[in-house]
Structures are given as structure tokens and as C-alpha cells.
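fyi for ur records
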Amino acid sequence: MSVVPTGGTLGILGGGQLGRMLAMSAARLGIDAHIYAPEENSPAARVSAAFTCAAYDDAAALKAFAQSVDAITTEFENVPARTCEILAAFTPVRPHARALEIAQDRVAEKTFLNEQGIGTAPWRAVTTAPEMTDATAAIGLPAILKTRRLGYDGKGQARIMAAAESDQALADMKAAPSILEGFVAFDREISVIVARGIDGAIACYDPGENDHEDGILRRTTVPASIPAATRDAAYAIAEKIVRSLDYVGVMGVEMFVQSDGTILVNEIAPRVHNTGHWTLEGCAISQFEQHVRAVCGWPLGSTERHSNAVMTNLLGAEADDWLALGNAAQAVHLYGKGASRPGRKMGHVTTLSPKT
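which gave:
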């Protein structure tokens, strides 16, 4: 239950844009950020008080890092769970390694959710051709084959529309353990950004409605076009997940809303989340400050939304031409990454309007 005081230091594993925005929010609260990442030139390191460039399996560097900070968190879910276990011997790590282990493996994630009575798309674990045959027979087609680990923004997955495509889809996975998920007919995808403090307090932000292009999040609109009963059901699911995990910090929970109002969870992300970026302008307390508060042992802040918001990702070269987007009222965030590539998230813009 240790609390990081003002003037203390928060260790952050990972040097990407989420770490960058966490470090900036920590600074507003009088807390220094110490970034630990294997990349020499990272967006987060350039705005932080300290930086350790070392591998996630460097035991000596991890010990020195842990002993230099008051608490540790992660900015992405694929930090090795073993890394967090090593660090936890010296300094509190929030969220804990088990949350990472579950989120890192899609089979473990689906199993955990189903054990909590939370619905998901139908699924089967797949590695071999016979397993693929059994899975497609059980689930039906169309379906989507995904690697169990890693893969994001449409990477590491293949759609299977007909049985004749199954062999090629399995070959595309290059023998990586995979999961076959059935297609879900849904009206919209929403996400809930939920926070839980070390005292067990839980707070949710208004659900956002997500639009994707080519498997990559393009925009999140808040409020989502859902009735109050669906919103409350989404909150209940998110709260059940963080409570069941004894989770501390902010988590993003992506959900499918079906035409009859049934909610299925697509995935969980044990970190601040792209679909919560709108909170930087749309709320007094953003998801980033909320995460810092939670992992540092502070009371959670208000999640009240004071405006409607549309957050749009800037992909690839769009970040070079954001001025040409034309809306002077947009709040612009550029992540300080290197060369732009098609589909790479280089920044985002948020447009506010009066709350409805």
C-alpha cells in the first residue's frame, strides 16, 4: 500500500507515446518519471527526468532501476511478465505480472473472461492443421485466425471466409500458436476506460465508440451511441474484470455491442489506451493522470466528461500535414517518433463540442 509522494519517482517500462504522455502527466503532479526501455531514442525518454536503456532481461539493470524509483508501471502490455516479477522483489509494480500474462496470450485472455461469466466471440486454440479443421467445424466460417501472442493494428491475423482459405491462413501464422475466433455480428464497437486504485476504488470514463480502417483505430467518438442500460452494463463488465484481477491502474476494455444489446468483450489492455486519448481534453482528469494517481497510491480523480469529443489518429504522413486538416480548434498531440510509415500512429487530434 506504499504511496509515491510528490517529489518521488515513477518508473515506467516502455518508451513509446503512452509512456510519453504518462511522464508528462506525472510531471504535472510533481512526480518525476524514469523510463526503462531497450530503444536508445524513445519518445518517452525525451520528456522524462531519467532514462535507462537496457534489455528487459538485464537483471543488474533492472535491480538498479527498481532501486531508483518509488513505484513501477508499464506503458504497454508486452513487457515480459518475468521482468515485472524481478522488479517486484524491490519495488511495487502496478499492475502486477499476472494481468500482463493474461493480456499477452489471447487464449489465456479469453479463458479468463469466460471464467468470469463474460461473453466473448466463440474461439478455439489452433496450431496444427487438424486443430484448424476441428476449430472451423466447431465455430464455422467466416472466422479470423490470430497469433496468440503479439500482433496489433491488424498485424498477426488472417481472415478466413471459406474453407479453402484455411491452409493458407495457418501457413501465414508461420507455426506460431494461434486462436481462431468466430465473426461477431455487432452494431458498434465501444471501449470503456476503467481505473482501480490500491484501495479498491473503481471509476469508469464514458464509453467511446470506435471506428477502424484496415484494422487500425481511426477515431473514437464520445459519447457512444448507446442507451443508458447498455452503458451501465459495459461499466459493470469493466469493473468486474479489474476487481477479479485485483488490478491497480487504468485498463482499456474493448467491447462489441450486438443488435439485441448483448455485450461481448473483444480484448483487454492493461494500460492506458488509444481509445481514451480524448480524456486529455474532454475531462479534468485524463486517463494518464488517473493511471499515475492509481499506481502511485493516490485517490482516483473524477472521470466526469465536460464535453463531447472526437479523437482522430494521425497515421503515417498525416502527422506531417496536420495543419492542413483545417480545424484550428483541434488539440494536437504529436508523439515525437522517427520516420513516418503507412499506418504508424504518429499523433492524434481531438475536437470538442458542447456536452450532450
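Residues 9-93 form a domain with the Rossmann fold fold (CATH 3.40.50.20). thats all i got for now
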